[in-house]
Amino acid sequence: MNSIELVVTTNGETRMVFDDRLDLRSVGGISIQRGSHVEPTLSGQWTADLYPVGGPVLGPFDKRIEALAAEVAWLQQNWLIPNLE
What superkingdom heads the lineage (predicted)? Predict the structure, then answer.
């Protein structure tokens, strides 16, 4: 089973790639925002559009699960730890 990464910044902002295994309602108020849009193309392939977090469009992929995996990998590598400069 994969781990869940939570990043807490010095100003108290917490980031994570959403995962149903962790119920955050017990820690107080939360704000969930979309990080991307994984959608089928007209040709039946899949893309992951990371525009909501300032990222690229990934793909096309033959299978939706491939687009989802690429989405999570990109978010973990490029968005999870915010640029604190």
Answer: Bacteria
Report helix, strand or coil for 46: strand
> Residues 11, 2, 44, 32: what is their CA dihedral angle, to the nearest 10 degrees?
-30
Which CA distances in Å does 55 have to 12, 48, 52, 68, 71? 24, 10, 7, 15, 10
pTM: 0.83
Per-residue pLDDT of 44-72, as tens digits, reads 999 999 999 999 999 999 999 999 999 99
**In the 8-state DSSP scheme, what is residue 29?**
-
Q: Which two tokens stand for residue 45?
A: 């392939």
